[in-house]
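Ticket #4471: structure output looks truncated?

Reporter: J.K.
Steps to reproduce: submitted the chain below (305 residues) through the standard prediction queue, then opened the result file.
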Amino acid sequence: MTGPLDIPVLRPLPRKTRPYPDETTPSFIRRIETANHTGYGAVRQLRNRTGRSWPETLAILSGNTIRTLILAMPQLSAGTLLPESGGRPACRATRIACSRCTLSRGAGNHVVVHTTHERVLCPRHRLWTGDGNAGTGTQMRLDTCPGILAAHRHHRNLIIRFGRPAVLEAFEASSLINWRWYEQFGHFASFDQRYTALASRGNSPQQARQSAVAAALYPAVVDLTSALASPHWQALALSRNLTPFLERISRQITDGWIPQGSGDPLRHWITEERTARRLAAHDTTAASRDPQTARTPDSPVLGQL
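Returned output as attached by the reporter:
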């Protein structure tokens, strides 16, 4: 029989480990175990044996206060009453943070953080931390590509202008369209110039290729995001006369080529968006005409009758 005296007492480990801003819990646990040479899984075992909460366990073992951890790590702040933990944008992805930033804070060169869609590079050290970033060797230096840094500033300004939800939706659509263009055509002249400059930064081609492609595509992704997030340009894209919209795309992104054909990813997005909006408008009209028969979340669908 296990009694209260059999439960181990948690004490701070010899090496104090400070959390990195927005760090994920697994990353922080790994750094605690690495710094104290406890072996993989030791922190989880201690937590299970003591029955303490994760914030309390990590605070004791790392030598921090619970408040410090909650403010630094967004996943631990859920459900807390700390006013400082509110107002954060929703993080939809995890990425490896800028290795130079983490090293300067004494956190090592491999820290995984929760991030938002626009945090694809480190403006301070000019390193790429977006798609393709698998660690120190794939964080491309952007000194030779000022256009990528300018695109990042443009990206952040779009969020201020149109709001994060609208820009996020447009950015995801733009990323998909540009990646499909890349798969179809190898992309365009401006991309080739940026990719050549990035690929010659001294990294091995195999290691840096995906990161270099993502970074080289980024300015085009932001340019298309700007058009898709703008209510004015989006309305033109979904109108019957979309020539002005396509002319803008051909001038800014596609080197004079106008996207055409049902197989083109941009044309496909336009068709899908038109269909979705027509269906939404039809449902709204039907509900306004006959509110008694409008289907609610609890109403049965045809297959359930």
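Triage note (M.O.): checked the attachment and the full token line is present. The first helix runs from residue 25 to 36.
Status: closed, working as intended.
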